[in-house]
């Protein structure tokens, strides 16, 4: 069954699913946020990015690695992929079990995660990490008798990050909740890539990136395309493409006109 707007779906959820909560619309809004993230995850898998996905990883600011921000999804260069393997249903697929199965190098710090915990699947489950890499495992097939998984090692630096933004309660169209959410997303998008955004005196957007201490400046879109399509290692080394996904809700834009919140996001994400 389809709904004409996010508002309609949020109202239905608040009445029929979360009606017993103290703030049913807020609970419904959080559920909608989960829906958006789930859709994005499976879109990334459908687009062939399954073995590049990490979930809720800390993303460092450019030039300030001690400052990190967790984002919903990051895409990383694939360093190594292991063949699929099968575990009996009576074996708990913990990080330690997976690390032993794939003979993960001793340099990796093994995590205390479980791929399946009380029937809940943890996609892109982190097995372990070292200074430069992340080891991740994903389930391929789960039956009553066995679980088939495959593991892969990713470079820690993300070449793209994806954030999902939802609104809160219906009616907060101009309130501080939505604009603060937009500003938070905009800050992360602007500070985590080597290609920095600079507003010029004509209101346009310029870009600047550094190679060996030398600044390269030009129109932002031109530099963005140059980095993506030229693919020079020095240009790509610290570059992170920023992608924002928002719910189609009156709080962000109405009748094709962007509200302030959407303008803040649109000028910040690639």
Structural commentary:
The two termini are 33 Å apart. The chain is flat. It is α+β, with helices and mostly antiparallel strands and 270 residues long. Strand 12 and strand 13 (205-211) form a beta hairpin. Helix 1 (6-16) packs across helix 2 and helix 4 runs parallel beside helix 7. It has helices spanning 6-16, 24-46, 95-102, 176-191, 220-230, 233-236, 260-266, and strands spanning 53-61, 64-75, 78-81, 85-88, 109-110, 116-117, 120-121, 125-129, 133-142, 146-155, 160-165, 196-199, 205-211, 214-219, 241-246, 253-254, 257-258. The chain is built from seven helices and 17 strands. The longest helix is centred in the first third of the chain and has 23 residues, at 24-46. The strands form five sheets. Strands 3, 4, 5, 8, 9 and 10 form a six-stranded antiparallel β-sheet that branches.
List keywords for this structure.
single chain; alpha+beta; 7 helices; 30% helix
Strand content: 25-35%
Count of strand segments: 17
Q: Structural class, from secondary structure content?
A: alpha+beta
Separation of the first and last Cα atoms? 33 Å
Total helical segments: 7
Order of helices and strands: HHEEEEHEEEEEEEHEEEHHEEEH
What characterizes the major β-sheet?
6 strands, antiparallel
The overall pLDDT, averaged over residues, is: 84
Kindly provide the radius of gyration, computed on alpha-carbon positions and rounded to a whole number of angstroms.
Answer: 21 Å
Tell me roughly what share of residues is in helical segments. Answer: 25-40%
Low-confidence stretches: 168-172
Q: What does the overall shape look like?
A: flat
């Amino acid at each position: 069954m389809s709904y004409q707007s996010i508002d309609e779906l949020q109202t239905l959820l608040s009445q029929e699913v979360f009606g017993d909560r103290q703030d049913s619309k807020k609970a419904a809004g959080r559920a909608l946020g989960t829906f958006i993230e789930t859709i994005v995850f499976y879109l990334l898998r459908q687009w062939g990015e399954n073995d590049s996905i990490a979930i809720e990883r800390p993303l460092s600011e450019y030039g300030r690695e001690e400052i990190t921000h967790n984002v919903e999804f990051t895409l990383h260069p694939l360093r190594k992929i292991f063949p699929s393997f099968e575990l009996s249903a009576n074996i708990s697929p913990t990080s330690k079990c997976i690390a032993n199965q794939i003979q993960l190098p001793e340099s990796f710090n093994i995590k205390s995660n479980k791929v399946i915990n009380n029937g809940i699947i943890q996609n892109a489950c982190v097995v372990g990490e070292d200074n430069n890499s992340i080891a991740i495992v994903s389930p391929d097939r789960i039956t009553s008798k066995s679980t088939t998984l495959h593991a892969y090692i990713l470079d820690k630096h993300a070449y793209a990050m994806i954030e999902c933004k939802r609104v809160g309660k219906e009616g907060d169209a101009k309130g501080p909740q939505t604009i603060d959410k937009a500003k938070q997303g905009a800050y992360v998008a602007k500070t985590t890539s080597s290609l920095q955004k600079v507003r010029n005196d004509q209101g346009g957007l310029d870009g600047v990136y550094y190679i060996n201490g030398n600044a390269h400046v030009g129109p932002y879109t031109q530099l963005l395309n140059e980095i993506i399509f030229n693919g020079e290692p020095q240009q790509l080394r610290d570059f992170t493409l920023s992608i924002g996904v928002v719910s189609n809700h009156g709080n962000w834009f109405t009748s094709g006109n962007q509200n302030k919140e959407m303008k803040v996001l649109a000028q910040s994400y690639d």
